[in-house]
Amino acid sequence: MSGRAFNRHGVRAIYRFEMARFRRTLWQSVATPVITTSLYFVVFGAAIGSRMTQVQGVPYGAFIVPGLVMLSLFTQSILNASFGIHFPKFIGTIYEILSAPISPLEIVLGYVGAAATKSVMLGLTILATAALFVPLHILHPGWMVGFLVLTAASFSLFGFIIGIWAQNFEQMQVIPMLIITPLTFLGGTFYSIDMLPPFWRTVTLFNPLVYLISGFRWSFYGASDVGVRVSLAMTLGFLLVCLAVVAWIFRTGYRLKN
């Protein structure tokens, strides 16, 4: 930061602007995932839960709750952060931000911090919605909050990268819809990977989202498909990779200064 003081006013301005945009679209931002979560419980919890009562010793309706939270957290973190940085690019105000007395770190803190905050709020809202359908017991609340915040921050950083990379609003939808959502469904959201044949279980272990969902589920029930330390390491590793890519983007000016 070249020896200058941390520009908390600049970070706060970006953060407050992004949160104000969230409040303007609060109904769409909250109502949609709540309705979607309710439908998941009606379809999966009732239809499948009546035939498969327990998974890893946990009632099926409760078993799918961590996966549903992660599903929304992944997609909403990416969409919030990507739109937040892509819109200034689209209308040209990104150059005002880049020329302001605010460092790349402070820009990232403002945009990613706001996106992660929205995602965490959404995750807690989905948890509250799920509690209306099934009794929830969080065995390790500290770990649950840790995984929630780390995952929201990591995927908000990933969304920030997508927002810079995307050249139009259609491109922003490609990775969340065609890659992240399928990987989430194939990552043990609605089932334990132990239920798969050995070959497909091995293939599934190459899906990085398995580790995030598994670690988050462990914080609820103490049961997981992979070790919690491995899950934490994968989450932190993804966060560090995203930080390295963001640093490279600002160092080279990739799709920011041209």
Protein architecture, described:
By secondary structure, this protein is mostly helical. 74% of the residues lie in helices and 2% in strands. The chain has 11 helices and 2 strands. The protein has a two-stranded antiparallel ribbon with strand order 1-2. The longest helix is centred in the first third of the chain and has 27 residues, at 65-91. The chain is globular and about 60 Å long. The model has no long low-confidence stretch (mean pLDDT 89).
Topology diagram in text:
Elements: H1 8-24, H2 26-48, E1 54-55, E2 58-59, H3 60-63, H4 65-91, H5 94-99, H6 104-130, H7 141-165, H8 169-185, H9 198-204, H10 209-221, H11 228-252
Antiparallel strand pairs: 1-2
List its salient traits.
74% helix; single chain; 258 residues; 11 helices; mainly alpha
What is shown here, in short?
By secondary structure, this protein is an all-alpha fold. It has 11 helices and 2 strands; from the N terminus they run ααββααααααααα. Helices cover 74% and strands 2% of the residues.
